[in-house]
């Protein structure tokens, strides 16, 4: 429970900071930045939060399901423009995936040790 | 007369979602191709439709469940902290690829939508589709678009990215976990991150980091676009 308490505290702190300063980042992301600073400064020990964090990360997909179900309410708008909407979202998402992945794979500094086992995995 | 009144209790939405999710986890062991988000949404939408339960009743509990995304996002700090040395080493590659990806995302959506039918409101609402919904909603408001529709588009984008992202990238020859993670986080925000975490901790770490940075970079990229619309 200590882990959940810490994670929730940083969540609230981030939301509060977002409302206070009107920053362009949402409260969750601000909370994550603060949490990383606290970990880096050793104010929070990794073993306090590790267990709770692992549980939440393992089941992250679960928390997105309500949003997907909620799409049903927008069916009329989506149906009226479905061709352009699907083309725009699918097309652009694939383009973003490829451009980002391509640039990231070209710019990374690989060391020999890191690259060797990766090749083996691919061959398998 | 109202036999469905009990579904208004928060417990209904929470229990229904968790039960269907637990079933999807069991099925996923046998059927690897089955995506939990797609399976759960189809089953839940089907159930609500057949049982005639209004979406608002479901949302009472389901919205509480999605609040847990808050602490789950904070929890991303743990793997990012564990991989801090690798993050530091690749920081330039991370930032540059996210900037390229975010910029291409805005431009490509505008190009595709304008060449098809281009109802102004729909096009503008779709511009911030690759960032997580709280950021997309803010950007949409500043553009004078429809924030609710923008939120729906981010969910759509997330589903597309988490369903096809990894397979598509592998097909194009991008296979290392760091690049896969950055691409999924930039293109499909939290959905991409959740999918990446399901694949591997390392990929999930970079996806979560990319999601946060893409939100920040996209917010900055939109500033000149607001001026254009003023």
From TrEMBL, chain A:
Recorded topology in the membrane: Multi-pass membrane protein
Regions crossing the membrane: 24-44, 56-75, 81-104
A Pfam family hit: LrgA
Keyword set includes Transmembrane: yes
Subcellular location: Cell membrane
PANTHER family for the chain: HOLIN-LIKE PROTEIN CIDA (PTHR33931:SF2), HOLIN-LIKE PROTEIN CIDA-RELATED (PTHR33931)
Protein's name according to its UniProt entry: CidA/LrgA family protein
Taxonomic path: Bacteria, Bacillati, Bacillota, Bacilli, Bacillales
TrEMBL record, chain B:
Record bears the keyword Membrane: yes
Name of the protein: LrgB family protein
Keyword Transit peptide: no
Protein keywords: Membrane, Transmembrane, Transmembrane helix
TM region(s), chain numbering: 6-24, 36-55, 61-81, 93-116, 149-169, 178-197, 209-229
InterPro entries: CidB/LrgB
Signal sequence, renumbered to the chain: none
Topology of this chain in the membrane: Multi-pass membrane protein
């Amino acid at each position: 429970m200590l882990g959940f308490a810490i994670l929730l505290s940083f969540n609230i702190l981030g939301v509060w900071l977002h409302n206070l300063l009107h920053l362009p980042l949402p409260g969750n992301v601000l909370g994550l930045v603060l949490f990383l600073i606290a970990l880096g400064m050793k104010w929070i020990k990794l073993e306090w939060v590790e267990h709770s964090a692992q549980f939440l990360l393992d089941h992250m997909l679960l928390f997105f399901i309500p949003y997907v179900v909620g799409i049903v309410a927008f069916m009329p708008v989506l149906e009226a423009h479905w061709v352009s909407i699907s083309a725009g979202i699918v097309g652009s998402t694939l383009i973003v995936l490829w451009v980002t992945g391509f640039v990231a794979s070209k710019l990374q500094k690989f060391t020999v040790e890191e690259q060797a086992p990766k090749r083996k995995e691919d061959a398998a | 007369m109202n036999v469905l009144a009990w579904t208004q209790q928060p417990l209904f939405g929470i229990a229904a979602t968790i039960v269907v999710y637990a079933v999807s986890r069991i099925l996923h062991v046998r059927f690897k191709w089955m995506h939990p988000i797609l399976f759960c949404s189809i089953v839940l939408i089907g159930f609500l439709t057949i049982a005639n339960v209004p979406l608002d009743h479901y949302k009472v509990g389901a919205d509480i469940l999605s609040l847990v995304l808050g602490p789950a996002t904070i929890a991303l700090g743990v793997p990012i902290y564990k991989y801090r040395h690798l993050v530091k080493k690749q920081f330039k590659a991370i930032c540059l690829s996210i900037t390229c990806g975010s910029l291409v995302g805005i431009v490509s959506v505008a190009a595709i939508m304008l060449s098809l039918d281009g109802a102004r409101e729909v096009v503008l609402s779709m511009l911030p589709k690759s960032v997580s919904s709280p950021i997309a909603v803010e950007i949409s408001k500043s553009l004078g678009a429809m924030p609710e529709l923008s939120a729906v588009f981010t969910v759509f984008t997330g589903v597309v990215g988490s369903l096809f992202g990894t397979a598509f990238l592998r097909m194009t020859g991008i296979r290392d976990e760091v690049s896969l993670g950055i691409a999924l986080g930039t293109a499909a925000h939290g959905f991409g991150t959740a999918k990446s975490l399901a694949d591997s901790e390392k990929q999930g770490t970079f996806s979560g980091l990319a999601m946060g940075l893409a939100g920040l970079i996209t917010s900055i990229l939109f500033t000149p676009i607001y001026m254009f619309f003023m």
